[in-house]
């Protein structure tokens, strides 16, 4: 299969996704939103973080263009910003399973 060369736009988008996935809480949020939209309080509870921490991470993901807030009465729920993101995350999870589990864990890369 022949692929087109990456443009600066593509490179920036992949870098944003990489930044989002570099934090375990943000990665958990994206993975949680693959199937269904969710409220920040529910995400905070399921990921074991405070609501303030969740708010900060959701703001980061919104800024990266990866999630969006949808008004729901007096509350807002969050969902992935693009329909292509869930299948991409599913494929990425398949790739991660073949990576050395102890590589790049913690503060330094051991690769």
TrEMBL record:
Transmembrane segments: none annotated. InterPro entries: ArsR-like_HTH (IPR011991), HTH_ArsR_DNA-bd_dom (IPR001845), HTH_Metal-responsive_Reg (IPR052543), WH-like_DNA-bd_sf (IPR036388), WH_DNA-bd_sf (IPR036390). Residues 6-100 form the HTH arsR-type domain. GO terms for molecular function: cadmium ion sensor activity; DNA binding; DNA-binding transcription factor activity; lead ion binding. One of its GO terms (biological process) is response to lead ion. Pfam families: HTH_5 (PF01022). NCBIfam families: HTH_metalloreg. This is ArsR family transcriptional regulator. It comes from Microbacterium saperdae.
